Amino acid sequence: MTKLNTQITILFVVLAFACAFVPAFSVEESEAKSLWDTCVVKITPKCALDIIAVVFGNATISDSCCHELVQEGKVCHDTLIKYIADRPTLIAQETQYLKTRDDLWNHCVSISTTA
């Protein structure tokens, strides 16, 4: 099961990077670069992978990654997950992913406020 989760995580990371840098898939190259420069650099790569695995897979997130996510900010979190969920291969389940995104945000905020 761990191997499957790892493979899913790697798939989504590769997909996210491909979509961000391949003009045929990205909404606008400048928008992808802006997201990268202002949002993704605020969290560690491990936490970014964990967040993607939670939203698009069936993983759990550590308290420390929750703190990073909250520091990244809701606008960045919402925008990045929406950006990935808008891919043609994922769009059919976009509503589910956006709900999971919001649930993850609420969970992380509750952890961050109690710590």
TrEMBL record:
Keyword match Signal: yes
Coiled coil segments of this chain: none
The answer to whether keyword Signal applies is yes
- So which residues are the signal peptide here? 1-20
Residues covered by the Prolamin-like domain: 38-109
Show the Pfam families listed in the entry: Prolamin_like
Q: Which UniProt keywords apply?
A: Signal
The record ties this protein, via PANTHER family, to: BIFUNCTIONAL INHIBITOR/LIPID-TRANSFER PROTEIN/SEED STORAGE 2S ALBUMIN SUPERFAMILY PROTEIN-RELATED, BIFUNCTIONAL INHIBITOR_LIPID-TRANSFER PROTEIN_SEED STORAGE 2S ALBUMIN SUPERFAMILY PROTEIN-RELATED
Q: What is this protein called?
A: Prolamin-like domain-containing protein
